[in-house]
């Protein structure tokens, strides 16, 4: 059985990749278990050195990786290269953080002490997405490997060629069996998560897939960390510049064609600013559509899903201010789209769209914006644009999300981490905290022996 991938730019045939069947999955997990023992006892500094070697190997193939990412997922050349560079940087980050990862100590009395030792979990399954396939994979693989785990990686079925290339570059930097790649769709993923000899599953992808993984893993008490879908709001206060707010909204909604977990999915703008903001957003949207720089969606199935939400909103009374129509011609392109007169009950507001759509809802005040922004089952991130410190602090204190961004839709310190909530998942997926997720703690109570009489 094989998977076929088409170029999302023009629909041309990219190639076929063999699907890993159940026997291949079982064999990969067994090889990982066999390799785990020696790798788990390798000195942390040596594991860090192996990660540095993997980063070097990836860097020498950067152009090849970036080109294939562009052709297989539709990301722009700049974003494709940037994602690969971010992956290299993440491998180097974990190469340095891993050897200094440590537990804590607590002195219970003058002569006794408790100390915690982080131990690798064992066999880690990493299931990664297509929308930022190199950076996300390098994060999960790097944290798992540097802490002494053996890893079986299943990249998304929407970028199997890229996943196989990435595995072929990274795996030789580690001992045999420590890092393996299997290819396939949800069937392969389910087979992996149902293996009793898997100790942790790390998943980045859709909420539906994450929940299915968690149910399968629960049969063997396998730990799961997952960062899943988002429905991130943008709340715009009355005291900000409407042109700047529109550029922030356009960046948040249209970057990578809206195919980012933390894309702006719904906009709540103060009534006093709504007219000027919407006019500026339409202007920014039309400029993006006319520039030809907006990337295609990953495939026509994703485009159909995005347009389905837009069409449903229009049928329920939403107004199209820009975009909103499937273009003619080959590929999976969809225009940047602005909708007004939307309601929270519409799918385009209530669900993750994952496309270049900016639905704008007018609110009476900042408090209403916060309240409606919080009314969702997702809990990934949220952004507020405000000149009020009080409003910024209130947003940080009340929005039930892993990350609250103030006056910038994207950004964050290098090595930063966040913990999603609700339908968006749970567990840390980035930063130093991911090293904690990839290990389990043994606590030792050490007291002096009783001396002989």
UniProtKB/TrEMBL annotation:
Under the heading Gene3D superfamilies, the entry gives: Aldehyde Dehydrogenase, Chain A, domain 1 (3.40.605.10), Aldehyde Dehydrogenase, Chain A, domain 2 (3.40.309.10)
Q: What is this protein called?
A: Aldehyde dehydrogenase
**Glycosyltransferase: is it a keyword of this entry?**
no
Keywords per UniProt: Oxidoreductase
Oxidoreductase in keyword set: yes
Q: Residue ranges of the Aldehyde dehydrogenase domain? A: 3-444
Q: What InterPro entries does the entry give?
A: Ald_DH/histidinol_DH, Ald_DH_C, Ald_DH_N, Aldehyde_DH_dom
Taxonomy of origin reads:
Bacteria, Bacillati, Actinomycetota, Actinomycetes, Propionibacteriales
Q: Which CDD domains match?
A: ALDH
Superkingdom:
Bacteria
Could you cite one Gene Ontology molecular function of this protein? oxidoreductase activity, acting on the aldehyde or oxo group of donors, NAD or NADP as acceptor
**Which Pfam families does this chain map to?**
Aldedh
